[in-house]
């Protein structure tokens, strides 16, 4: 989810009085009425709120307590801090793909779900690349895949029409065919619509471009390649050039200003991994229903951005029941329901063929069959990008702020050099 992520998990959520009981060892946590308490923490939007109620109704001996963090980075920093401390984690912990490599490096602190989970929940239920990413070299499955983030493009039809650009999903495809055509359309747009930007954030565009490559900030040997991989610098140059031409709204993703930008129509396009649909609907609000559209084309062919996993740390006192809950939340039926609730796109093979998914209509986005649209986008993804150590940290804490500094007036070359040095410090 979320993020991504977006945009893209579960975390220990308990009242302050019971936080200490989240540690390893001892008897299972119990509520006052004798039920087993399963703590689960999520970030951004997973679409689980109604599913929790459904699970509790079917399992009256279980009480689910959720803690939901607004963004992924604080969630993961909390996760790694408590892993180091040896206590304080939830029964089920969420992990976003950008941070998965750091979890895999600590795989001995997580349960093997092939051992403690339901027998029928096997890796072949998922897209191969999704399950492979959470499988250790000796075959231990550390996480059940939740969503994935096949990429499409969202845009404001009314703002396109105002700028004299095509506004129907078929007509815009030529504008979004390549990054070159996308930025060229941006030049046309901003020349016709003073005060309205082409895109929301340089970092959001850069991240989408970056996720289309075979490797991220590290090569497959986990060596930092920020300086040696020309794709990274080429993406940087393209995005910062667009910023210089006034195409960016200069908003920080998931900030209050960014949220308001959706509501007030301060930008016309949005890179749209499937989970972003729920974010747009939430932030743009009912007054903008029907103004946003999504098209099944993405510059340079598509890709995947975001997606998460549900893990069960060895600290959990309720590991077996936690694995059952995680398996149920990630089963095809629940993945489809989560998509219908928040646009988090399924990663299980059977879910991708589910009629309810393929026939799902998103009324907010002009009644598009969003399930079928993103199912087609999935077929363009042949493998997950290799994410090395600290990949997510470099994206969130280095390149995001560096691009923001360019939006605030810093020279692009100076910001690039600073980002390279910061990435080297993090990579060690």
TrEMBL record:
**InterPro entries linked to this entry:** Bact_solute-bd_prot1 (IPR050490), SBP (IPR006059)
Superkingdom is Bacteria
**Keyword Signal appears in the UniProt entry:** yes
Record's signal peptide? 1-22
Tagged with keyword Signal: yes
Q: Name one Pfam family in it.
A: SBP_bac_8
Keyword list, A-Z = Signal
Residue ranges that the Swiss-Prot or TrEMBL entry lists as coiled coil: none
Descriptive protein name: Cellobiose transport system substrate-binding protein
Q: Which organism was this protein described from?
A: Lentzea jiangxiensis
């Amino acid at each position: 989810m979320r993020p991504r992520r977006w945009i893209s998990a579960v975390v220990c959520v308990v009242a302050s009085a019971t936080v200490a009981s989240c540690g390893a060892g001892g008897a299972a946590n119990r509520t006052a009425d004798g039920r087993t308490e399963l703590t689960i923490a999520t970030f951004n939007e997973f679409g689980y709120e109604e599913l929790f109620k459904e699970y509790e109704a079917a399992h009256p001996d279980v009480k689910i307590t959720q803690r939901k963090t607004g963004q992924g980075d604080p969630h993961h920093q909390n996760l790694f801090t408590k892993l180091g401390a040896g206590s304080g984690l939830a029964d089920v912990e969420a992990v976003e793909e950008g941070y998965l490599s750091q979890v895999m490096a600590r795989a001995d602190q997580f349960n093997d779900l092939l051992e403690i989970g339901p027998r029928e929940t096997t890796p072949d239920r998922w897209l191969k690349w999704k399950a492979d990413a959470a499988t250790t070299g000796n075959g231990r499955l550390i996480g059940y895949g939740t969503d994935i983030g096949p990429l499409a493009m969202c845009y404001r039809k009314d703002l396109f029409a105002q700028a004299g650009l095509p506004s129907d999903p078929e007509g815009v495809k030529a504008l979004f065919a390549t990054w070159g055509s996308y930025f060229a359309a941006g030049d046309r747009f901003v020349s016709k619509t003073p005060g309205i930007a082409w895109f929301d954030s340089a970092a959001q565009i850069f991240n989408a471009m970056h996720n289309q490559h075979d490797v991220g900030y590290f090569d497959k040997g986990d060596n930092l390649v920020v300086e040696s991989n020309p794709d990274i610098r080429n993406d940087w140059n393209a995005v910062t050039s667009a910023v210089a031409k006034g195409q960016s709204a200069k908003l920080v993703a998931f900030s209050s200003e960014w949220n308001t930008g959706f509501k007030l129509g301060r930008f016309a396009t949005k890179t749209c991994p499937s989970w972003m649909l729920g974010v747009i609907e939430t932030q743009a609000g009912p007054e903008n229903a029907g103004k946003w559209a999504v098209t099944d084309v993405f510059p340079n062919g598509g890709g995947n951005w975001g997606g998460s996993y549900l893990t069960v740390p060895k600290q959990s006192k309720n590991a077996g029941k936690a694995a059952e809950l995680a398996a149920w939340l990630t089963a095809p039926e629940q993945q489809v329901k989560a998509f219908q609730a928040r646009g988090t796109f399924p990663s299980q093979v059977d879910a991708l063929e589910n009629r309810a998914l393929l026939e799902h209509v998103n009324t907010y986005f002009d009644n598009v069959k969003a399930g079928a649209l993103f199912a087609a986008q999935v077929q363009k993804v042949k493998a997950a990008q290799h994410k090395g150590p600290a990949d997510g940290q470099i994206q969130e804490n280095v390149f995001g702020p560096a691009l923001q500094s360019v939006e605030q007036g810093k020279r692009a070359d100076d910001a690039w050099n600073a980002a390279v040095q910061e990435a080297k410090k993090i990579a060690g």
